[in-house]
Amino acid sequence: MARALVGVIGGSGLYEMPGLTDVQEVQVETPFGPTSDPILCGKLQGIPVAFLSRHGRGHRLIPSEVPYRANIHGLRQLGVRYLLSLSAVGSLQEKVRPLDMLIPDQFIDMTHKREGTFFGGGAVAHVSMADPVCSAVADCLARAFASTQAEQPVQLHRGGSYLCIEGPQFSTRAESHWYRSMGASVIGMTNMPEAKLAREAQIAYATLAMATDYDCWHPREQAVTAEVAIANLQQNAARAQLIAAEAIRLLGMEKPDSIAHTALTSGLVTPVETMSQGQLAVIKPLLEPTQSVLEEVEH
Ligand SMILES: CSC[C@H]1O[C@H](OP(=O)(O)O)[C@H](O)[C@@H]1O
Ligand SMILES: Nc1ncnc2[nH]cnc12
């Protein structure tokens, strides 16, 4: 099977990864069924990369239908240890203007219809989510942002909370004001439980969030529509892909340590020897040590 060190999950408007060479389309079998779309494995600047379209090419899956567990398990089986999430978001703060980008350092999970863990059924783990974003991956994204050119001035905001709603409907004005009062910076529908599952899979995760709108709280701006969100996202898509490519180069070169890589060392409660064959099929790939992947994908 193909192997990859860095994974990219492309969200709305980002269904492919330009520049990927030696591309192999892989359908990974997971205990949770198929991934959103076949995973595109290839090389970017010599680094083995796996690209997955979150909603599937053709944008077929609503956020509640995205098979988050299959996606993260599939990427992990391929070896992925660093994961970049590219996402459209609404802005909940005046200073984060549409077309700006933001790298969140926190998430607030308001979803309620999604399977959010690999554990259960006799296998118990409690991983820390205190710092859900890998600061090393976030730093690579920020450095990559700084090294790419924009046609129009786009500001990068470091830190802030991404609040994840169930969707697929956008929020009511009352909800939007409530989320602002919680201190959230941006709103989206997909990064949870994706970030939780990445942590359980010991994958270092960070998001490049692209603000497309002011949701519906702003007194002078139009309430968000999908049409406006996608149109604004498309203005940023090419830059986002360049940022991702440069971040991949940095990650491949530096292979930074991450707290995520040992999340199960302290998090796993049930001894592996007591797990059933079924549980092992889920948990074992998550436990593969980082070192063996690094050696295998050495370029
Ligand atoms: C089409 S705008 C709403 C849609 O876009 C975001 O998805 P993603 O994070 O995959 O870019 C948002 O969460 C909604 O799913
Ligand atoms: N306002 C918004 N709410 C939720 N998801 C979004 N994605 C882009 N804009 C959004």
TrEMBL record:
Binding residues for substrate: M189, D213, Y214, D215
Entry's EC annotation: 2.4.2.28
Annotated ranges, domain Nucleoside phosphorylase: 6-249
Organism domain of life: Bacteria
Pathway where this protein functions: Amino-acid biosynthesis; L-methionine biosynthesis via salvage pathway; S-methyl-5-thio-alpha-D-ribose 1-phosphate from S-methyl-5'-thioadenosine (phosphorylase route): step 1/1
Keywords: Glycosyltransferase, Purine salvage, Transferase
Catalytic activity: S-methyl-5'-thioadenosine + phosphate = 5-(methylsulfanyl)-alpha-D-ribose 1-phosphate + adenine
Annotated site, Important for substrate specificity, chain positions: S171, A226
Broad class of enzyme this protein falls into: transferase
Pfam families noted in UniProt: PNP_UDP_1
GO molecular function: S-methyl-5-thioadenosine phosphorylase activity
CDD domains noted in UniProt: MTAP_SsMTAPII_like_MTIP (cd09010)
Annotated phosphate binding sites: S12, R54, H55, S87, A88, T190
Function: Catalyzes the reversible phosphorylation of S-methyl-5'-thioadenosine (MTA) to adenine and 5-methylthioribose-1-phosphate. Involved in the breakdown of MTA, a major by-product of polyamine biosynthesis. Responsible for the first step in the methionine salvage pathway after MTA has been generated from S-adenosylmethionine. Has broad substrate specificity with 6-aminopurine nucleosides as preferred substrates.
Family: Belongs to the PNP/MTAP phosphorylase family. MTAP subfamily.
Assembly notes: Homohexamer. Dimer of a homotrimer.
Cited PANTHER family: S-METHYL-5'-THIOADENOSINE PHOSPHORYLASE
Protein name: S-methyl-5'-thioadenosine phosphorylase
Protein's organism: Microbulbifer variabilis
